[in-house]
Design brief:
single chain; 347 residues; alpha+beta; Aminoglycoside 3'-phosphotransferase, Chain: A, domain 2; 5-stranded antiparallel sheet; 4-stranded mixed sheet
Amino acid sequence: MAERDKTVGMIENSYGEWFGDLAAGAEISEVWRSERAQSALVRYEISDGLAVRSVMVKRNSLTGDVAERPRLGLRSGFESKHRLEAAALAAIHRSVPENDGFGSVRVLEIFADGLILETVEGRDLGSILRRTHGIGAAVLVRRSGELLRSMHRASLDVPTARGSGNDLARSFEEFLHFLGPELRADPALADRLDRIAAALPDLDHLSVGLGHGDFAPRNLLVGDGQRLTILDPLGCQLVPVEEDLAYFALALRTGALVPWLGPISERVASDLEGELLAGYGTTSGFRYHAVCTLVALDAMAADKVRPVRRSGMAKRLVTQTLPGRTTLVNACAARAIEAIQSGGVDG
């Protein structure tokens, strides 16, 4: 109750600055709450009897994926995680062209352990793709690529996490060492991964951009008029642009769209991946497939230290288990080797 009263007090003191159309003395009420692994979300409505606005309060949680393991995401502490997210959201807000049918989340206030955000209405793209096929889905995914390209162009003075082929190779070797017992059980997979690791230092001309860290369909909101908005960036650093593309493509091939329904077919996933890359304005050569392999290894490492707990139909359908992740890593690695054979390392 004390926490709620404190939050209501923050909103009460500042809503007039955030929303000029609300009169003093507006009523503030909690309308929705969700507890997640690493955050708690609470939605509040503010009404003065004539206008109604809403905000989302996001608080950090001390739970979640805190085990020691190799990872692509920032190793940010509890105290700084929300500040990094706020910086990323502010950069996205500056860089995304809203007149092109794209939106951004406005950060209203940063407090000790969280953020107050302006609410954005819509449905997440993952749930739409799971139920929509054909041209409608293709258009949304292509526009997601266009939106990501705008985000990657954000101007921000932040660290570069992986800016060279050698950086990618070091990350790759960390995952291979951590996942050795699981990966070495399949000699063909082990050989593919060793060949990729050996080729990575030869990569030139890595393009970097502001990384999202989990650019999956579930973190894109589709609003009125098909307006697309990016949600929940995990940090604020420059990474190879292929990483966010890989997160999206791999989410299409797992149960990450609507977990309880399982993955979509490989044919549909492949078609949508092509739309994503076309929207971004790139192609799928070795660099892209090598980074896809790296992102798949990151997900596998996360599952190793934090097993997914599911039951019944979801457990049978969702590929987010170590055997399923190994299959995904194998598929990505095979595509990377095919790319080397057809176009070389820079192909």
